[in-house]
Design brief:
The complex is a heterodimer of chains A (163) and B (712).
Chain A lengths: L1 H18 L18 E4 L7 E4 L1 H18 L23 H4 L4 H10 L19 H14 L18
Antiparallel strand pairs in A: 1-2
Helix pairs in contact in A: 2-5, 4-5
Chain B lengths: L10 H26 L2 H14 L4 H4 L10 E3 L4 E3 L32 H4 L2 H4 L8 H5 L16 H7 L8 H12 L30 H9 L3 E3 L5 E3 L2 E3 L12 H12 L13 H8 L4 H11 L7 E6 L2 E6 L15 H9 L1 H4 L12 H13 L18 H13 L43 H10 L17 H12 L8 H6 L13 H9 L7 E2 L2 E2 L9 H4 L2 H9 L19 H14 L17 H14 L7 E2 L2 E2 L9 H4 L2 H9 L1 H4 L12 H12 L25
Antiparallel strand pairs in B: 1-2, 3-4, 4-5, 6-7, 8-9, 10-11
Helix pairs in contact in B: 7-18, 8-18, 9-10, 10-16, 12-15, 17-18, 20-23, 22-23, 24-28, 26-28
Chain lengths: 163, 712
């Protein structure tokens, strides 16, 4: 009887001591766009916003400066130049056309232009105009907005070292 | 105690001894158990377990140390132990959402975490090793982590210049400038406009007291809770100009009375030639003809009008000048004529160009504005006023000063005000204890405080003088981000060295004849000159290297846009030959690019063979038609090249094809790897492109025999 009481007391002490280790407050409620540097409307549902990381947001900015004219149906100036280009280029959100292309392929065609890979010369080379990081950012943006969503075949390679 | 019992330990003692030893052992155990259960140690162990489930365990654990990790940067005052728990931050293989926090890879950013630490951007307590202490406000540390949606504020605390990479911060700073916040508040990196609102010294000559009353009660621009901006009831993208002040009836009457007597300079009414009036007065379509002239002169480049298309009414036109849909019910007709002829006589700082008018055009356009751009209901519900009494004027003047009107507007006899509101240059670094929340139910955080003040200035202080601004939630977030970036003077000299300030180009003014024409037509409102001026139209800093002088003169007299998708086009100023020549002379001689050698290509002979090769290159190898139009076929991303031979100088074309970004750094024309032969061929081909009907001027610099009779 006595031994049982002692054990109980000891356990209670231990528990009390441990209780002191619990975190004092819970973390602030999670922000739904916690990782969002910028957002873009989902291609299949305009009400839904896709959060973008810093790199993807830079891709969006570069895309909307250089690429949007032929690779989207609406442009900052209004009409799109897409229909003036033959064959018609893929829009940026077209996952069916772009998901199958490897990162290396996309990077090459943006850097050297369509003619370098036996495709239309209407796609000019951007390797002398954009930096390598800019081109990677545009690719990251294309992957982020693809419909159907892009699923990498393998784990992505390191893009910008953080440490 | 009996002797036989001495030395014997009673059962009671035994139990007491057992209990006390157990308590002692338990107490001894507390410390190691507590130590074992430290949050950061738990995370360390969890990371090892997690790494073992990944295919690249070896690499994930290569740098693993069981102790506390920290980034120590004495110059920046950084001691950040965040990497103790956030162990996968630099691992490239853990970016996906499936990886549990705190192990996820840091998303790619342009700075290396090791060089900057964490708290420089994220705030919080870097040296803490407990989750709550590191992230939240505690008794010992008031600066909590910055919520991720405001993270761009941290970019802005060093990058005080416009930063395209941080769109939310940029938008917030733009809004702070657009709303003229700097008129009343000191802000970091945003300077006070010289003249934030219109000069009202002569307003009594322009509009009626009833109109002023209506405007003060309901400004023309109204923004609803969703941030939808409506001007005169029509939806627009335009940013609101004047905010809504909380004024009662007495204040409205007094202020409108005071303003209606502001007549500092009398207007000399302009008399249109009576013969012109006699000729046009009887014409039933005079207002329609006025509308046609209004369109032809491209007034809409700066002013918007409500247009109904397919049952939907919206404002179409530019935002430089005010919207004009109901201007006919607003202004005094004498004032309108005087204004159109010489805007600067009424408002010296006006951006409106002084057009060259014929009496006929002036009559037609003013008839159009005064009879068609009207709304008979505009002043319904406004009481009819007598002339303002001396008492009303006196009260109005007091109101004008008390409400802070003089922070934005000038009237005679009232000194300009500055810094009416609190200094906000260090708002973004304030601790919660420094903020006055009053009795409000605002969340006790700095972003919460700023958001609440922006949404409704009276939430904290019911007597606040700040007017009501209406913004969409996203815009409010952007403005909050920009305010959070204003953290005052940097804490250490090392941080001070990091600050990138914005540089504004000096104002561009030229002496002599060019200067007079340039000021008259306000070229810098839309065009840039050596970094100064507007961004609506092309940068003209190097126009002299680009365009041929005869083309410039033609263009100035009859501007035809080169980019067919543009809605806003260069207005037709009706300038004289002499003025056009003065402008073209100056542009040709003085505004040249050092990257273009005027002698370089001028002497070159372009042969028909070269032009033929150039055509091949243009159409087949490089397929320039994807962006440029020649004839009627091609794209419209780049300018139309139909008249390139008359328009562009060959030396410019050569330099441009070699490296477009060297001439216009932000052009979207990609740089190709053309060979020198290809550049010459393309230049020769473009030189042959001349608009039919326009004979090439005799001194045009490109001479290609092929165009005008190859056989000769």
């Amino acid at each position: 009887m006595m031994a049982r009481t002692t054990t109980a007391i000891a356990v209670a002490c231990l528990l009390a001591a441990l209780a002191g280790c619990r975190p004092k407050g819970s973390m602030e409620a999670r922000d739904p766009l916690r990782n969002a540097f910028d957002t873009v409307a989902d291609a299949s549902d305009a009400a839904k916003l896709v959060p973008l990381t810093y790199q993807q947001a830079q891709g969006k900015r570069i895309f909307e400066t250089y690429c949007v004219w032929c690779h989207a149906d609406a442009t900052p100036a209004g009409p799109s130049n897409r229909s003036n280009v033959t064959p018609m280029p893929a829009v940026i959100t077209d996952g069916t056309a772009l998901n199958g292309l490897s990162d290396e392929y996309m990077q090459t065609i943006i850097t050297l232009g369509g003619s370098a890979l036996g495709k239309s010369a209407m796609m000019p080379p951007y390797g002398e105009t954009l930096k390598e990081d800019d081109i990677r950012a545009v690719m990251a943006y294309a992957r982020a907005v693809a419909q159907p969503p892009y699923e990498p075949a393998a784990r992505p390679k390191p893009q910008i070292p953080v440490k | 105690m009996p002797a036989e019992e001495m030395g014997k330990i009673s059962r009671k003692m035994r139990v007491a001894f057992a209990v006390s030893s157990m308590i002692f052992v338990a107490a001894l155990a507390i410390s190691p158990v507590k130590d074992l259960r430290l949050e950061w140690k738990q995370n360390k162990r969890a990371y090892v377990r997690f790494a073992q489930t990944r295919p690249d365990t070896k690499r994930l654990l290569a740098d693993f140390r069981p102790g506390i990790d920290q980034i120590w940067l004495p110059e920046l005052g950084v001691v950040d132990r965040c990497t103790t728990c956030h162990q996968g931050m630099a691992q490239p293989t853990l970016p996906d959402a499936g990886v549990p926090q705190p192990f996820r890879t840091h998303p790619p950013i342009p700075h290396r975490v090791g060089d900057w630490g964490c708290t420089v951007c994220h705030r919080g307590q870097g040296a803490a090793t407990e989750i709550a202490e590191a992230h939240e406000t505690t008794l010992a540390w008031e600066q909590p982590m910055l919520p991720m949606k405001y993270i761009q504020a941290s970019c802005g605390s060093c990058h005080r210049n416009a930063l395209a990479e941080a769109p939310k911060l940029n938008r917030g700073r733009e809004l702070l400038a657009e709303f003229n916040c700097a008129s009343c508040h000191k802000l970091q990196g945003i300077t006070r406009a010289a003249m934030p609102g219109p000069d009202l010294a002569n307003i009594g000559n322009k509009v009626s007291r009833e109109w002023i009353y209506k405007w003060l009660k309901e400004p023309r621009t109204v923004v609803d809770a969703d941030g939808t901006v409506k001007v005169n009831g029509y939806e627009t993208e335009e940013s609101p100009r004047m905010p809504q002040f909380r004024l009662n009836e007495k204040e409205l009457v007094a202020l409108s009375g005071f303003l209606s007597v502001q007549r500092s300079r009398s207007i000399a009414p302009y008399k249109i030639d009576p013969r012109v009036i006699a000729r046009w007065d009887k014409q039933p379509d005079v207002a329609d003809q006025g509308e046609t002239r209004f369109r032809q002169m491209f007034c809409s480049t700066c002013h918007s009008l409500a247009v109904t298309r397919a049952g939907e009414t919206k404002l179409i036109g530019g935002e430089i000048g005010p919207e004009l849909t109901k201007v006919g019910s607003k202004v005094n007709p004498d004032w309108l004529l005087a204004w159109l002829r010489n805007p600067q006589a009424y408002l010296p700082h006006s951006q409106m160009p002084r057009y060259e008018w014929t009496d006929e055009d002036l009559y037609k356009v003013s008839r159009y504005m005064l009879t068609k751009l009207t709304d008979s209901d505009l002043l319904s519900g406004v009481p009819k006023f007598e002339a303002a009494s001396a008492e009303e004027v006196e009260t109005g003047k007091r109101m004008f000063i008390e409400k802070g009107c003089a922070s934005c507007h000038a009237v005679e006899g009232v000194p300009p005000q500055q810094d009416l509101g609190p200094d906000l240059t260090a708002l973004g670094g304030k601790n919660i204890s420094e903020l006055d929340f009053g009795q409000s139910k605002i969340p006790r955080t700095l972003p919460g405080y700023i958001q609440a003040k922006l949404a409704d200035p009276t939430t904290v202080n019911p007597a606040a003088r700040m007017p009501q601004y209406h913004m969409a939630a996203a815009d409010r977030e952007a403005v909050t981000t920009a305010l959070l970036s204003m953290t005052g003077p940097p804490a250490t000299s090392a941080r001070e060295k990091l600050v990138v300030s914005s540089r504004t180009a000096p104002e561009f003014h030229a002496p002599g004849a060019f200067g007079r024409v340039y000021e008259r037509y306000k070229c810098a409102v839309c065009h840039q000159f050596n970094g100064f001026g507007g961004t609506l139209a092309p940068d003209l800093s190097y126009e002299g290297s680009r365009a041929q002088k005869p083309w410039m003169i033609d263009f100035l007299k009859n501007p035809q846009t080169l980019r067919p998708t543009l809605i806003l086009r260069m207005p037709q100023f009706n300038m004289s030959d002499q003025e056009a020549t003065i402008l073209a002379d100056y542009l040709s001689l003085s505004l040249q690019s050092p990257a273009v050698d005027p002698q370089g290509a001028g002497a070159k002979q372009y042969t028909p063979q070269m032009a033929a090769l150039g055509k091949q290159l243009y159409e087949v190898k490089y397929q320039c038609q994807s962006c440029h139009t020649i004839g009627s076929a091609g794209g419209y991303v780049g300018p139309n090249l139909n008249n390139a031979g008359n328009w562009l100088k060959p030396e410019w074309i050569e330099a441009w094809l070699k490296n477009p970004q060297a001439l216009v750094p932000d052009t979207i024309q990609p740089r190709f790897n053309f060979t020198p032969e290809e550049i010459s061929a393309l230049t020769a081909y473009l030189g042959t492109l001349r608009q039919s009907g326009k004979a090439a001027p005799a001194h045009a610099s490109i001479k290609v025999a092929a165009v005008r009779g190859a056989g000769k």
